[in-house]
Amino acid sequence: MSMNTLAGLTAGMSSGDGFTPPTVDELFPAPILFAGTPFEINRVILIRLLAVLVLSILLLVYSRRAKLIPGRAQNAVEMLLDFSKVQIGEELIGPKAKPYQPMIATIFLGVLFMNITGIIPGLQIAGTSVIGMPLVYALAAYVTFIAAGIRAHGVGGFFKSQLFPSGVPWLIYLLMTPIELLSNFVLRPITLAIRLLANLVAGHFLLVLCFLGTNALYFSMGGPMGIALGTATLLGGIIFTVFEGFVACLQAYIFALLTAAYISLSIEEH
Q1: pTM attached to this predicted model
Q2: DSSP state of 186
């Protein structure tokens, strides 16, 4: 692309209602309800509440109307529940998975429904794209990991197994124990939360860039070049929307999988 074309593109997009890049303010919108109170609700919180409401209604209807021969909706819900139970819980924890299946399913479905709002028209931001919600799920996984270990080994046995792995020369514990403490009891919930947050935030900004660019190229720049470039960014936005849907599902799976893996590590015999 020549310098003259680039200059024309910049000038065209700077005029009128041209392109304005997204900022972090996208993630912290103005309050909609109860402004200035501890119960303040903005767009992100409203989307979280909507995701919880839809998931709750879906599971409530499923529990009350489940039939021996399932229809399509029941089939879809059962596929998600079976996936959580078999491919995550039983695959990672094995025969001891039963007590932890409700928590694994809650995390899997909760993260999935929060994530998927990022590609729904009219919502277009994931409920997990601000640190609060990923941190809640990470703390739930963290508490379950500790509770499962204490249940299996007792308080002393659990912390001993996590901080003083067997078969290690005692001098090595001087180096290993602080590392295990930092890794298992400090960094674990933080890395869980940040992994989920970073993927959803990156996807949100990518989609916003594509569709804002499309709008600016079509309506501010105009002309054959604007239409051609706008069509390219529109197609890119559609492709990235499909990809972001895949990432939303994948991140829910990974989060639940790591939760099950941590539970498995806490209850296994050492």
Answers
A1: 0.87
A2: I
Alpha helices in 83-222 (DSSP H): 91-93, 101-116, 132-163, 173-182, 188-216
Distance, in Å, from the CA atom of 164 to the CA atom of 169, rounded to the nearest integer, reads: 10
- Residue 51's closest CA among 126, 105, 104? 126
Torsion, Cα of 216, 221, 224, 228 (10° steps) = -30
Q: Which of 75, 79, 51 is nearest to 65 (CA)?
A: 75
Residue 159's alpha-carbon distances to 144, 165, 177, 247, in angstroms, are 14, 10, 11, 35
Measured CA distances, 1 to 138, 224, 232 (Å)? 47, 14, 15
Cα dist from 13 to 4, 114, 241, whole Å:
14, 34, 24
Whole-number Å distance between alpha carbons of 190 and 45: 21
Write the pLDDT tens digit of every residue in 194-251: 999 999 999 999 999 898 888 888 887 778 888 888 899 999 999 999 999 999 999 9
Long-range contacts of 77-80 (CB under 8 A, 24+ apart): 80/108, 80/109, 80/112
Q: Backbone phi, then psi, for 23, in 5-degree steps?
A: -125, 180
CB 44 within 8 A of CB 57: no
Helix orientation angle between 101-116 and 72-82, rounded to the nearest 10 degrees = 120
Q: Measure the N-to-C terminal CA separation of the chain; round to a whole number of Å.
A: 63
Rounded to 5°, the CA angle 143-146-150 comes to 135
In contact, 194 and 255? CB cutoff 8 Å? no
Per-residue pLDDT of 6-39, as tens digits, reads 444 444 444 445 677 778 888 888 899 899 888 8
Helix (H, G, I), strand (E, B) or coil at 32: strand
Q: Where are the domains of the chain?
A: 17-267
